[in-house]
Amino acid sequence: MLKEMYDVIVIGSGPGGLAAAIEAKKTGAEDVLIIERDKELGGILLQCIHNGFGVEIFKEDYTGPTYAQRFISDVHQLGVETLLDAMVLDISPNRHIYAISKWSGFAELDARAIVLSMGARERTRAQIRLRGTRPAGVYTAGTAQRFTNIEGYLPGKRFVILGSGDIGMIMARRLTFEGAKVERVLEIMPFLTGLTRNYVQCLLDFDIPLQLRHTVKRIMGSSRVEAVEAVQVDEKWQPIAGTEEIIPCDTLLLSVGLIPENELSKKAGVVLDPVTGGPFVDEGMQTNVAGIFAAGNVVHIYDLVDWVTEAGSVAGRAAAKYAIAQRQEAARHVKMQAGQNVRYVVPHRLDKESLVEEDQKLQMRVIQPIEGNVWVEVKDGDELVARKGQRYARPGEMVDIKLPQKAYDAVRKADRLTVNVVPR
Ligand SMILES: Cc1cc2nc3c(=O)[nH]c(=O)nc-3n(C[C@H](O)[C@H](O)[C@H](O)COP(=O)(O)OP(=O)(O)OC[C@H]3O[C@@H](n4cnc5c(N)ncnc54)[C@H](O)[C@@H]3O)c2cc1C
């Protein structure tokens, strides 16, 4: 059963989101909820079945799912709530969240603090304007990773990989393990764009050639990829005539960069750094919108998942502190609510600590006139806190009531007081 208000809501359950939720709970946030669009917690780690995770934090060499499970266990043990198979559609700057899920339908939730940890998405063929025919067999490396490692499909037999990013190199090795042939990795830059350790362990160890300053000029094939035309480029990334080479293959994988997933952030009024593509953040990972924090690839693209976890912890701790301060601030005040036949009440809230010496006057306007005796009453739920009788109430004439000092104990116990103007 979802609550209407949470201390901290975390969007996304990758390593950034998991760490943020755990740290928020450990810091003292009461109600913490993770919303995840996938069916399971863990984010991209679930499809990273190779090792290399946790060396910094645990001094252990885990696979992605094992690394994720350590945090998922903590999430459950600490009593963090989770809403899976649920997509956050919109966030307002005052931290109102709209989400949709097969299980709970359309949900509107409020949070004292939000941690954005929606990760990143991969650049596609259209984004790098790759020319040629449009056959089947062109995938981003991450999609091929999901097919191979989670869905159990091998997306091709003979591959060319464009881009020397980590996901592409890791997939070159993975596909080789599965019996596929990786013809080549092409990289337009004069240097490797992924980690050297992945170059050694994934390409060199498996004799997969890497060609720097090379790109795909066009894709060839009608219903399925049949080949790509590779070409060498100059310093301005322009093809050098005469260096073209046709490489037969049935699949082209693209590993040409990640884009922080910030569509939701923009809707919440979060300002993005044009260089990183992620929000501008302070040392607690707070964005320009008070109470909205961000962690992981949504901020900038990380090399190591361990560092994503560290960033998530920082954001979760700061978000919890913010939420606790908000809660304490709210608890100091009693909200004045316009009840029956009342349009508004001023003051809108009372500071419990300053209710000491004088009676407190409340002013209001009624919605409908009542000719005849009326009660002006202040209630905490069904309990009467103060009442005054008068001969009539009219919208054009301001109505008031004094909260006497003897009612202050009752006022301090309340979260909100309702003011009604009703026939006597
Ligand atoms: C396709 C891909 C493959 C990768 N493969 C590797 C690899 O093999 N090895 C490696 O070391 N690193 C890999 N990385 C990098 C690694 O993913 C990151 O370093 C790390 O997972 C980032 O963690 P994160 O928490 O920021 O995001 P992620 O792990 O991406 O988690 C983000 C989560 O947010 C959820 N989400 C997004 N939008 C919404 C929404 N609106 N509502 C609800 N939920 C939402 C997503 O479903 C996802 O579960 C890969 C990255 C990508 C994108």
Characterization of the model:
The chain has helices at about 15-25, 65-75, 140-150, 165-175, 195-205, 265, 305-330, 410-415, and strands spanning about 5-10, 30-35, 50-55, 60-65, 80-85, 85-90, 95-100, 105-115, 120, 140, 160, 180-185, 210, 215-220, 225-230, 245-250, 250-255, 260, 290-295, 335-340, 340-345, 350, 360-365, 370-380, 385-395, 400-405, 415-424. The chain is of the alpha/beta class and about 425 residues long. Strands 1, 2, 5, 6, 7, 8 and 19 form a 7-stranded mixed β-sheet that branches. Strands 10-17-11-12-13 form a 5-stranded parallel β-sheet. Strands 22-20-27-24-25 form a 5-stranded mixed β-sheet. Strand 3 (about 50-55) and strand 4 (about 60-65) form a beta hairpin. Helix 1 (about 15-25) packs parallel to helix 7. The longest helix is centred in the C-terminal third of the chain and has 28 residues, at about 305-330. It is elongated, with a radius of gyration of 30 Å. It starts with a strand and ends with a strand. The mean pLDDT is about 95. Bound molecules: flavin-adenine dinucleotide.
Key attributes of the depicted protein:
424 residues; 23% helix; 5-stranded parallel sheet; 7-stranded mixed sheet; alpha/beta; single chain; binds flavin-adenine dinucleotide; 8 helices
